[in-house]
Amino acid sequence: MPVTYLDYAATTPMDPRVRETMTDAMATVYGNPSSLYADGRAAKAAVEKARRQVAALIGAKPEEIFFTSGGSESDNWALKGMAFARRAAGQPCGIVTSAIEHPAVLRTCAWLEAQGIPVTKLPVDTEGLVSPATLASVLNDASDDGKSTVGIVSVMMANNEVGTIEPIAELARVAHAHGAVFHTDAVQAAGHIPIDAQELGIDALSLTAHKFCGPKGVGALYLRRGVAIDPLILGGEQERGLRAGTENVPGIVGLGCAAELAAAELAAEAARLTELRQLLASRVQAISGCTLHQAEDDAQRLPGILNFGITGVRHDALLIRLDRAGFAISAGSACSAGSLEPSHVLAAMSVPEGRAQEAVRVSLGRFTTREDVLSFAAALQREAASIRNLGTT
């Protein structure tokens, strides 16, 4: 049975144009970018082209882009690298983050806390929004003898489970007003909504290729010029001495191509996906007992993510039935798949545990069609009714 893929927030199918570009690179750009002869220079040129393409996607300068293995490495590097650099310089190195971050941020913060670096988690409201006023209050309180102990604020740009877009510009302004640098995990946002790192006041930003139809295993960290950071991986002098290891040239080329395509098609694709999400939401809300978990303002939602629950229909039973019917969706972050714990995102949004165990996430993407949405909605209604009937017999 062919599968209708509706889990783009977990990962995306690779765009054929990206695959073709990578295939060509694997066949022809085989030199080491650190080598000085012609093949090495060709590889270096390919890497630098990709750096420009990624920079253009997020409103950065090419020299502010550093290639990594993906979002998790970028998050780890940003938080560990900036915290240790600030501590070594005698600067405040405490971290303030939010309760709804991806595990790549939350677990890194927990590890840093064990190393003696204080960490504070900001609450969110029932829409999943972080309040700039709450951040300001926390930063005002985080002082020792009148001096701030916080050096880093890290709040994701858009949530991977419910799609809420955070007020990044306001949060960054608050952080800077208190002498802290601002990092954002933009893994779900990059390639899907407009980003201008300079205009938003971002100091560090994480992204990964496989969330916008590029290859897995390659990503980038944006680091504003002048922000101090320690290397996470030591060895050679690659990435201007900050990230050792021979570059994954085909992967980087694929990331660059995916970034260029996403930038060129972003506005039209965002409008198309928003329309499909709204269509799906209208069909889902027609099901008795359905609750949407999202921001009230449509402008504060990612174009392609819809999180909802149906009373009396546990997500595990629903996912199994929909999988058998040929539809791939999820119950939240792919990195938490298999966990028996309720979603930490929904818990932070004050969703009762029972309702959280009913929540599923449908995420639409570049190759999703209107027919996909309509057939899924019909299958959802059918399977949810079947589960409910079993529960009453």
How are the SSEs ordered, and which strands pair?
Elements: E1 4-5, H1 16-28, H2 38-58, E2 65-68, H3 71-88, E3 94-98, H4 103-114, E4 119-122, H5 132-141, E5 143-144, E6 147-148, E7 150-154, H6 168-177, E8 181-185, H7 197-200, E9 204-208, E10 219-223, H8 249-285, E11 290-292, E12 305-310, H9 315-324, E13 327-328, H10 344-348, H11 353-356, E14 359-363, H12 370-392
Parallel strand pairs: 1-13, 3-4, 3-7, 7-8, 8-9
Antiparallel strand pairs: 2-10, 5-6, 9-10, 11-12, 12-14
Q: What is the number of helices?
A: 12
Give a quick account of the main beta sheet: strands, pairing sense, barrel closure.
7 strands, mixed
CATH architecture of the largest domain: 3-Layer(aba) Sandwich
Number of domains: 2
Uncertain segments: none
CATH superfamily of the largest domain: Type I PLP-dependent aspartate aminotransferase-like (Major domain)
What's the level 1 CATH class of the largest domain? Alpha Beta
Strands in their spatial order, largest beta sheet: 2-10-9-8-7-3-4
- The dominant shape is globular
Main structural class: alpha/beta
Strand segment count: 14
Q: Which fold does the CATH topology of the largest domain refer to?
A: Aspartate Aminotransferase, domain 2
Beta-strand content estimate: 5-15%
Q: Write down the Rg.
A: 22 Å
Mean pLDDT: 95
Which H/E pattern describes the elements? EHHEHEHEHEEEHEHEEHEEHEHHEH
